[in-house]
Amino acid sequence: LSYGVGYKNCMAGVVITASHNPVEYNGYKAYWDDGAQVVEPHATLIVEEVNKIESFDQVKVMSEDEGKARGLIIELDGRIDDDYITEVKKQVLNKEIPGKENFKIVYTPLHGTGGRPMERVLTDLGFNYVVVKEQIVPDGTFPTVGYANPEEVAAFVASFWEDVFEEAVVLLLLEAFCEFNCCSNWEILSSSSLSS
Question: pTM to 2 decimals?
């Protein structure tokens, strides 16, 4: 979504998600025209507008057909995926890492949405990796994990992890919303700590 907001020159973007929480916690994350999550002063102004709603009758709605007819709803094709992957690969500082084919990455999206794009990037960059097949299909009920937050060790404690741990050098986890964590020598590195 962050990429898509700029890609389609949108004023804002919204994703309906519970992130790594159970589905009953569904809510939304809002993004501004810069592709980043909404911050002040916009965040407070949005909350104020939401709090003015006293009844669902006040919420303006239209059918999907009307939205498409008015050009307010467009369906994206695979081109946005291709363009996004191209932009991701441009961010790689060193594509020719000596010996990268000799260490194994174990990858899981923890039932989130990152499976297809991450596999494309790892393959295109020539990394040796395996996926945790029990967790590659998106599923908001997170059937193989008690708590799908990759910052918690409990997210990757399951019987099928034992075999992959033996051979892996790097364990790469993406949570449901595609934020990532990386474990090497079993030290958990969050996306925040890697970027700071």
Answer: 0.73
| Torsion sign over Cα 122, 125, 126, 128 | negative
For residue 6, what are the CA distances in angstroms to 81, 89, 196? 14, 18, 24
Which tokens is 98 given? 């000596």
Question: Which among 19, 184, 190, 191 is annotated as catalytic?
Answer: 19
Q: Quick one: 196 exposed, middle or buried, by C-beta within 10 A (0-12, 13-18, 19+)? A: exposed
The answer to whether residue 192 is catalytic is no
Strands (DSSP E) contained in 55-185 are 104-108, 128-131, 170-174, 180-184
Nearest to 149 by CA among 193, 179, 189, 104: 179
Rounded CA-CA distance 93/40 in Å is 32
Q: In what order do the strands lie in the sheet with 180-184?
A: 128-131, 104-108, 170-174, 180-184, 187-190
pLDDT digits (tens, 9 = 90+) for 151-178: 666 666 554 555 655 655 566 655 544 4
